[in-house]
Amino acid sequence: MAQNTKRSINELLVSLFNHVMDMEAKAVITVDYSDITNNDMHIIEAIGVEEPRNMSQIAHRLSVTVSTLTTNMNGLERKGYIRRERSQRDKRVVYVILTEKGKKAFYHHRDFHKKMIKAIVKDLSEEEMEILCRCLKNLNKFLEPKAGEANEHRREG
Pairing between strand 94-98 and 53-54? Predict the structure, then answer.
């Protein structure tokens, strides 16, 4: 691959990252959700609307420690986005569940991502989408923390 192409890919990735973060913050943190941050929205996304998740599962999905996540959870609970429930089978286990307000935030955030994906793939053939997916998987694999890597290298919540 030519050096100019590699440089262009690098510049595009840096630019895309910055644009996505800026655009997401503007699109997702609206008047209705001005009491939370974009980071809080990602925590809400990690909690999800399917089955309840415990703190360890959520922390793992976000690549953060449980202690890092706890502070954010306290704020989200205080603002009415989540609630905590003890497991009926094992009282030591606490599940985090989105409230109705939290579910509305989840769907609001998901809608932004759906629009972004639609814009990305709108002119791509099925084959091109598969190639894009493979490229993004390679990038994700490169960016994922390696097994045994120290927690200080992990993304903070």
Answer: antiparallel
- What the block records as the tokens of 34 is 């001005």
Burial of 105 (0-12, 13-18, 19+ CB in 10 A): buried
Q: Within 13 Å of residue 89, how many CA atoms lie on the same side as its CB?
A: 1
| pTM to 2 decimal places | 0.73
Q: Which of 86, 84, 75, 17 is nearest to 47 (CA)?
A: 84
For 79-138, write each residue's pLDDT tens digit: 999 999 998 888 888 899 999 999 999 999 899 889 989 998 999 999 999 999 999 898
Nearest to 101 by CA among 89, 93, 109: 109
